[in-house]
Design a protein that fits this description.
mainly beta; 1 helix; 13 strands; 5-stranded parallel β-sheet
């Protein structure tokens, strides 16, 4: 969350740049629903750009970019959905990009009902899209 008494861009007079510690997802959604994330650039992470887990549902990720650019010793994932049963019924990833990761977009567990529209991925070491549900 970002708090400010007015428009954050005006109040802080510049970009808001959160930093994650090592082995920490930049965005971690666990058991939450009805959230929208948009217009975010996540880079230089070593685990997950976006990590969706638990029983999260009704999520939108739009106009985002996840670029890890981490050496080959790690396996960062740009957008990772690994849900518990019964799995999501409505997760949307629109106009988003994931580059220089191990996998750009990876879906494991009970991750189904995921819509991807106009997304891009290049330069990933393993795959652009890995769909490995239970």
């Amino acid at each position: 969350y970002v708090y400010s008494v007015g428009n954050p861009a005006s109040y802080y007079q510049g970009a808001i740049v959160p930093m994650a510690l090592s082995n920490t997802p930049v965005i971690n959604v666990n058991g939450k629903s009805w959230l929208t994330f948009q217009h975010l650039l996540m880079n230089w992470f070593d685990q997950y750009g976006v990590y969706v887990q638990g029983t999260s549902d009704h999520l939108v990720f739009a106009n985002m970019e996840a670029d890890s650019m981490i050496p080959q010793g790690t396996q960062p994932l740009g957008f990772y959905v690994n849900e518990s049963a019964p799995g999501p019924g409505d997760i949307k990833i629109y106009n988003s990009e994931a580059h220089m990761n191990y996998d750009a977009f990876r879906f494991d567990g009970a991750a189904t009902a995921i819509s991807m529209i106009n997304d891009k991925a290049y330069g990933n070491r393993d795959g652009a899209l890995v769909d490995n549900p239970l």
